[in-house]
Amino acid sequence: xxxxxxxxxxxxxxxxxxxxxxxxxxxxxxxxxxxxxxxxxxxxxxxxxxxxxxxxxxxxxxxxxxxxxxxxxxxxxxxxxxxxxxxxxxxxxxxxxxxxxxxxxxxxxxxxxxxxxxxxxxxxxxxxxxxxxxxxxxxxxxxxxxxxxxxxxxxxxxxxxxxxxxxxxxxxxxxxxxxxxxxxxxxxxxxxxxxxxxxxxxxxxxxxxxxxxxxxxxxxxxxxxxxxxxxxxxxxxxxxxxxxxxxxxxxxxxxxxxxxxxxxxxxxxxxxxxxxxxxxxxxxxxxxxxxxxxxxxxxxxxxxxxxxxxxxxxxxxxxxxxxxxxxxxxxxxxxxxxxxxxxxxxxxxxxxxxxxxxxxxxxxxxxxxxxxxxxxxxxxxxxxxxxxxxxxxxxxxxxxxxxxxxxxxxxxxxxxxxxxxxxxxxxxxxxxxxxxxxxxxxxxxxxxxxxxxxxxxxxxxxxxxxxxxxxxxxxxxxxxxxxxxxxxxxxxxxxxxxxxxxxxxxxxxxxxxxxxxxxxxxxxxxxxxxxxxxxxxxxxxxxxxxxxxxxxxxxxxxxxxxxxxxxxxxxxx
Length: 573
Fold this sequence. Notes:
With 573 residues, this protein is an alpha+beta fold. It is built from 17 helices and eight strands.
């Protein structure tokens, strides 16, 4: 066999990009879940690749690409047999083997997100191994290895069904058997929003995946040495990008209309939904078809997430079932409508009749049945042996600590009340100042401004307001002569419990809202002036303007000098 440098480099480049998708999946899953499970999630996304690689080398590749029967390849430990019948033109065996290995790992890693935050790490390793060892390779043989679906003309260019739907079906069965996270559903059965801790990381994951998808789809031409392959690669790149962009735009508008505001995390999901949906037919449809597939995925992703969350009561923290399972199936079937290829691959809308559409639907259904049946057995066996779900106490504590002995994945940072990250206030390496001996301290001298002893002579004004109002409030206070204040980020709510908000289509159960607490001790400036000035700045007439509390203060002491009362509140410049 004569090797082509162009084809080999193209396949190896694609393999590298698809491998890097592991980072994108890890970032997405970590960002959409809570900080206490981040280390566990990163570990899972690393290990499914490291477990799947040797197992695919050991048995998976032979099962998938061996010239056995229409249902099964052959058992070929360590890829020792002849695969010339399946290798792309000019591509050596090991280049094609690594290209297929990273695709296998992608399918396995999809399951992690739907089962996040409550799965035992040992159980994850076992079912991830099962997916790479035989679940993915068998259906992959039907589709890409010369099996019965390939013989019928089933078309799945880069894996909407072979990769993504297999992962999505495993995710669906696993999440159903596992059950929802603690606190996800109330006694009335209504879902409660459990917010992800870091949408910045999730956004980074989406951009990484979008970038790597050009290798996932584009390199699936497995060649660049002919004009036809070059033209196909250009079309694949364009369609991939277009479908993702249209899906994202569609979901943004759809959630804006549906929830009153464009949903951030759902829109992130939409980008991936469009990418998954176009993967089956990115070489077979024109840009109009790609745009329509993106449009369909952009609407369906929202409805699917809501269905599994609210109707089916299946807890999927990252939307993996909807993105990969539902949109993978949808994209495969829509290829049967929009394909513009030869007579055996023309869609319904291009005069091809319903035969090709039926083959696409049959292929998706057969893959669902195979994957669903086998992974159900795997999950039930795991549950009966090592156990599938983490203990309730471990789940509440967080799997980072219970499964890995990791106190936090954010060492050096403090997790705030919203699950966000705050930098530490201490200076690294600084030594705390030793307290001065009591006899050497400046003696306190009481100055009561002529007031009778025991009566409060100073007033504390405590203002609770929106964080966005802080700068205006500070300027107004400085304008009336207030020279000192203490500002604290706090959480709370009033009688109205804030304006209703939504996260991934689920109303957020308001318990605590971010607020700012401003404490001012008034001595010279009249209290009434402070109150009226604050009200004038903070008033909007809407819920959440805040409250002002007024309290008597017995005395004030300046620690450095020992001054008390009025003098302690004045600048010593």
